[in-house]
Structures
1.
Amino acid sequence: MGKRWWVVVAGVLVVGVWSARGKDEPQSAPETVVSTKSTPKPTKSAQPPPAERSVGNWYDDYDPAHFAVQVRKSAKKAAVNPQLLMAILYNEDYKPHNPELERSWQRIKPDASFGIANMHRAAFDETKRNRFAKRQWEELPDHPDLAIEAAAWHLHDLANRIPANRSSKLTKDELLALGYNAGAGNMRAFARGAHPGPQAQSYLNNLHENWQKSGKAVT
C-alpha cells in the first residue's frame, strides 16, 4: 500500500508540474491572415464641367473658360462669334474681378468699368435697351452672366456700325475687338484705314495671343 501510494503521489506531482510549466510557456500567436485583395484607391471626386460650376465664389479662381456655356449662349443670341466674345473676356482679365474690390475702386474712380467684361455705364445703358432694360449697371460685378450677355449685344451693335466699304486689312472680328476697346468712332476710322495707336495695338496683340485658347474654350 505504501509503495503504491507513493507512486500515485509521484504521478500527481508530475502532472501538476507539467501543468504548471504549460501555463508558463508562451502561447503561439494567432496566424495573421493577409488579404490578397488590393486595397481600393480613393477615387477623386468628379469635377463638374465649367458649365455646371456654381458661381457663388466664381471670382476666387476665375478663368473665362469657366463661363463657356454662357458665352456660347449669349453669342448665339446676339449673332456674334463666340470665339471673339471669349477672347474679349480674356483680354479684359487684367485685373481682379472680386465684386467688393471693383466697387471699392469705383468709389475712387467713378468712371471705372464693372464686371468681367469691364463695361462702362454708358455702354451698358445703351446696350440694355429693348433687351434687359430692367437690369442695372451696378449688378455687373455680382452677375458674370449679365456681363457676358451685355458684352455680346454690345459687339452686335458695333458690328452694325462697321462701314460697308472697308479699306483696312483688319478682319471683322479684329475691328469689333478694337471697337470694344476704343469705341465705335475709332473702330470706323480703323475700318477706313487709320492705324491703331499704341493702346489699341496692344489690345489687338492680346486678342491674337488669346485667340487660340478662346476657340478651344468654346468648342
Note: The chain has nine helices and no strands.
2.
Amino acid sequence: MHRRRRTALAVLAATLVAAPLLSACGNQSHPGAAAVVGGERIEVSVVQARAADVRSAQGSSPEAAQLVNKSGQLNRAKLHGLIFGRVLDRAAADAGVTVTRKEIQEMRKANLAQQGGEERFEAMMLQQRWVAPDQIDADMRQEVQLPKLAAALGADLGTPAGQQVVGEALTKASKALDIDVNPRFGTWDDQKMQLGNYSAPWITQVTEFGPQDSPTGA
C-alpha cells in the first residue's frame, strides 16, 4: 500500500508560493494572444479550447455541478499550465534534461495502478487538477521532467535546500523567456511561478498521486 505523499510539483510549488514577490509586468497589448513566452504566442483560442475540453469532461461526471463550481478560474488555470510548461521546458533544456515517451507511459502506468484503474485515475485528475483525459500525458511529462531536472542540478526535492535550487533554476528560465501576459489574465510572477492571483488548488495538497520513486526509461 502506498503511503500518502506530495508530488514533485506540489512540493516545489509550496516553496515557490512562500518566496518573496517578484512580478513580471504584463501591460502590453496582446491582440488575440493570452501571453507571449520566449517570443512565441499562446493564443487565447488555445487556452479556451483546453478549458472547453475540461468543461466537457466535467459535464459527463455525476458531480458535474460541483466540479464546475470549484473550477471558476479554469481559463487562467489552463494558461498558467501552458506558461509553466514552457518555463519547465526551458529550465530542463538548460540543464540538458530530456523526457522520453517511454518515461511518460511508465509514469502514467504507475499512477493507474496506484489509483485503481483508468476510470478512477481520470476522475482524480479531473477533480484535483482540472485536467481532461486527453491532457493527462502532458501532466505526466512534467511529473517526469521536474525530478529529472532536480537530479541534473544535484538537488533533492525532498529538502528545502533542494527545492530552492530547482526554484532558482525555474526563475532563471522564466526571466530568460521574458513572459508577457495579456492583462485580461493577470501578470506572471517569475519568482512564484504564479499567474495573477491564481494558485492551483492542488499545489499544497498531500495526495496519493504518483509512484514512490520516479520511473526511469530509455
Note: The CA atoms of residues 36 and 180 lie 5 Å apart.
